[in-house]
Structures are given as C-alpha cells and as structure tokens.
Amino acid sequence: MRFLFCLLLPLALLGCGESTEKKSAGDTNGDSNKALVIGFSQVGSESSWRTSFSESVKAEAARRGIDLKFSDAQQKQENQIKAIRNFVAQGVDAIIVAPVVETGWKPVLTEAKRAGIPVVIVDRNMALDDDSLFLTRIASDFVEEGRKAANWLMEATNGTCNIVELQGTVGATAAIDRMKGFKEVIAEHENARIIRTQTAEFTRSKGKEVMEAFIKAEQGGKNICAVWAHNDEMAIGAALAIKEAGLDPGDDILIVSVDAVTDIFKAMADGDTNATVELSPHMGGPAFDAIEAHLQGKTDIPKLITINGDVFTQATAAEEYAKRKK
Ligand code: GZL
C-alpha cells in the first residue's frame, strides 16, 4: 500500500524514497547525524569483572556518541529475553547480548532477525543451530583460559596435586569451557586430580561457603593442595575460608583463577592467592566496530572475534595492583 501511495504522489515527497534496507550507521530516519541507538543486555553484576565489563562498554559508547540502552538482568535469563524484546519494540539499530547461559535464545533472536536488528553476542556463548541469528561474537577462548590455569598449577606443583574446583554458573560457557581446558591439561599428569568440584556461581560469598565445606570434608584442608576457581571472586572467597580454618592461603593451599580483576592483584601481593588468567573486559570497542561496519553494508565480518589474556602471578602483583587501584 505504502509503495502504491508513493507512486501516486509527486516525486517531491522524499519520504517515499526511504529504503527499507537495514538502517546504516547513524542513518535512522535518513538523518546521518543521528546517534546510533544500541541495546545492551548484560548478565548482571555478580563479579567485579562483570562490573568492569559494563563500565568499559558504557564508556566506549559515550566516547563514540552511541545512545546505549543498558539492561542488568540480575543473572536471570528471563530478564534478558524481556530486555531484548523491549529493544526490538523500541526499534533500536542493534542489540548486544552477554548471555547468562548457552541455551534458550533462538525464539527471541528470531524476533530480532525478523525486525532487521543485528545482534552481537559478547563474552559467553549461545547454543544456536543457525548462525544467521547473530552478526558476530566477541569473546575470550575459555578453553585456553582453563589450559593456562592448569599449566601454571602443574608447573608450580611438579604435576602432583589434589585439586578442589569452584565452578562458575551452571550452563555458562565460561564454566563449561574453563573446566574442559583445565581437565585436558591435568589429564596429562597421573598424580594430579580434581578431588571435589561444585558450583559457587562466580560469587565471592558462595566461593567462601563451598570452600568451607571442601575443607571440612578433606581433613580440615590438609588433603587439599590447590583451589582452581573459575573466577577471581570465588578465589578470594576461598582464600578467606582457608584463613578462617587456620591455614595459609597461597602457601598451604595454592589458588589459581581467571579474570585478573584489581582485587586479585591485592590478594596475590598479600600472598593469599597465586595466579590469575587475564580476561579483558574491553569488548565494547570490537562490538561497536562490527555493528557500524554491518550498518555501513560490510559483509565480511567474522562470526568470532577472539580476545586473549596473559597469566599474572605474585611476581608482578604489587606493581599491577598499583596500576589498577582507583
Ligand atoms: C567470563 C565471564 C565470567 C567471569 C566472571 O567471560 O562470563 O562471568 O569470569 C563473570 O567473573 O561472572
């Protein structure tokens, strides 16, 4: 109808010339100066890494003049799905999702696709059987993070260690893949084994609680050589539990984790934990680059853009902490 209407009117009515193609960067309503409007569905604020990640994305959006609609799902997938539906209803130019778990995303991503709104996945992954449902994913290689943590521990213990594992959120790619990479490496050492494993949901308080139970179950901690924590928050919680049990964290029981947040550098400088694998929170830039390229018509955007991190130990912890602390 709209097309017919346009044919009957003098060509002077430019509105009819508006393309039904996807909006180009800043081109909403044909105004090339209008700011991009991007919806960001974030997992929550369960860890200091997560809050650094949110702050980094917001700062990068502000630097680029992007109107970022931010939604904190408090670690609930249903809140993320609601937020994505709201972004679609608002007709945003693009949507960024940091998924809390891998499954359950196809219906809402299909709605975004039908609306012509590109979706960028950041950090954890989604289990999708159709890669046309997302533009790209920006993430670390979580399996490699697990390998790096295990390689450091095997080096530090000459491959002989009874390990307790504090898992992240059940069903989260970061937990699934870090566990996979860590196990791959310790399987090469016949005297290294995981003697207890349980989720502590990536939080400091649960990390302390689960570690208290592990200590009680393992001769007051005497049978535990090391803690492998899927993130620094749980590692710091575990160190507190070890201290309260009268043992010396970082010495009687080694602690290795992932994220390289500011607090872990303080803990390593104090000798309470031993090593962390860096996970950069700066994923906003690559996500916005991919969205802007797509809206300008580029079609060669890879489906995975990987970020990498180093292993940090007590050796440089004090100077790294000095650089990071506010
Ligand atoms: C990993 C990320 C994890 C962090 C945790 O990329 O999903 O979630 O390692 C956070 O700190 O809770």
Instruction: Give a count of the beta strands, DSSP E runs of length 2 or more.
Output: 12
Ranges where pLDDT stays below 50 over 5 or more residues in a row are 1-29
Q: Provide the structure class.
A: alpha/beta
Which term fits the overall shape?
elongated
CATH architecture field of the largest domain: 3-Layer(aba) Sandwich
Which percent band covers the strand fraction?
A: 15-25%
Helical fraction equals: 40-55%
User: How many structural units, i.e. domains?
Assistant: 2
Give the SSE string.
HEHEHEHEEHEHEHEHEHEHEEH
Distance N terminus to C terminus?
Answer: 59 Å
Number of helices: 11
- Characterize the largest beta sheet: strand count, sense, and whether it forms a barrel: 6 strands, parallel
Ligand species: beta-D-galactofuranose
Estimate the mean pLDDT confidence. Answer: 92
What radius of gyration results from the CA coordinates? 23 Å
What is the CATH H-level superfamily of the largest domain?
A: Response regulator
Q: Determine the CATH topology of the largest domain.
A: Rossmann fold
> Going across the major beta sheet, what is the strand order?
2-1-3-4-5-11
Q: In CATH's first tier, which class of the largest domain applies?
A: Alpha Beta
Question: Quick summary of this structure?
Answer:
With 326 residues, the chain is an alpha/beta fold. It contains eleven helices and twelve strands.
Structure description:
- There is one protein chain.
- By secondary structure, the protein is an alpha/beta fold.
- The chain has 2 domains: 26-140 and 281-295, Rossmann fold, CATH 3.40.50.2300; 142-279 and 312-324, Response regulator (Rossmann fold, 3-Layer(aba) Sandwich), CATH 3.40.50.2300.
- The protein is built from 11 helices and 12 strands.
- The strands form 2 sheets. A 6-stranded parallel beta sheet has the order 2-1-3-4-5-11, sandwiched between helices. Strands 7-6-8-9-10-12 form a 6-stranded mixed beta sheet, with helices on both faces.
- Helix 8 links the parallel strand 8 (226-229) and strand 9.
- It is elongated and about 65 Å long.
- The model is unreliable at 1-29 (pLDDT under 50).
- The structure holds beta-D-galactofuranose (GZL).
- Beta-D-galactofuranose (GZL) binds at residues 46-47, 49-50, 123-124, 140, 174, 202, 231, 233, 258-259, 279.
